[in-house]
Design a protein that fits this description.
Elements: E1 7-8, E2 13-16, H1 25-32, E3 34-39, E4 48-53, E5 56-61, E6 64-71, H2 76-83, E7 86-91, H3 97-103, H4 113-116, E8 121-123, E9 129-131, E10 136-147, E11 169-181
Parallel strand pairs: 1-8
Antiparallel strand pairs: 2-11, 3-4, 3-7, 5-6, 6-11, 7-10, 8-9, 10-11
The structure holds flavin mononucleotide (FMN).
Length: 183
């Protein structure tokens, strides 16, 4: 799948501490949604992908500030998340809701959905990939992965969320920085 080129990030981004991420993470993730982006732009193939997520979290683990994301193995993003050392979580103004709907419905397997969604991919000097149109970007380094074991579901209703048994893989990443776009 031919993707639009990833361009170097501009100087409008400021690195901040994750403590400066405003609002309840529950409403930020569940109501606003976010784009999970991962992949590699270091080689000429430049394979990377993005997908919408509304499940995830921010917290503290192993004395580190961490972010959690959950990806079903049926997603194209899954393989790229496994191969990448870094992933980003991008947050947008409400005016980009349609872009997030597109990235949560189309697959990077067969479409350049970021282009379709009107989003320009950018790469930072640390190799992390996100979008020029984002307002905040959380950059994470993978620390741990874990596949959900249906035998451990304590509430039987959870199994109903997996009609094709594509149980999520949980990715835990150390938050390296919060990038905020200065107006
Ligand atoms: C609001 C919303 C939230 C979503 N949250 C998740 C999620 O947390 N985990 C997941 O695996 N898929 C989630 N999805 C589904 C993926 O975004 C969707 O299947 C996407 O097309 C996968 O793209 P890909 O095949 O290019 O990876 C969500 C979709 C929407 C619209």
């Amino acid at each position: 799948m031919e993707q639009q080129p990833v361009i170097p990030a501009g100087s409008e981004w400021t690195d901040k501490h994750i403590r400066d991420f405003c609002g309840s993470p529950v409403s930020r993730i569940s109501d606003e949604w976010m784009l999970i982006t991962c992949g590699n732009t270091a080689d000429q193939k430049g394979l990377w992908n993005t997908m919408t997520a509304s499940w995830g979290g921010l917290g503290v683990l192993w004395s580190k500030n961490v972010a959690f994301m959950f990806i079903r193995p049926t997603r194209f993003t899954f393989a790229l998340a496994n191969e990448s050392q870094l992933f980003t979580l991008s947050f947008f103004d409400a005016s980009y809701r349609r872009s997030l709907e597109i990235c949560g419905a189309a697959s990077g397997r067969d479409t350049d959905k970021a282009a379709q969604a009107g989003l320009k991919p950018i790469v930072f000097s640390d190799g992390s990939i996100a979008f020029q149109e984002a307002k905040e970007i959380i950059v994470c380094r993978k620390l741990y992965v874990h596949d959900f074991d249906p035998g451990q579901f304590l509430d039987p209703s959870i199994e109903g969320l997996y009609p094709v048994k594509d149980y999520h893989r949980m990715f835990i990443g150390e938050v390296l920085t919060l990038r905020v776009k200065e107006a």
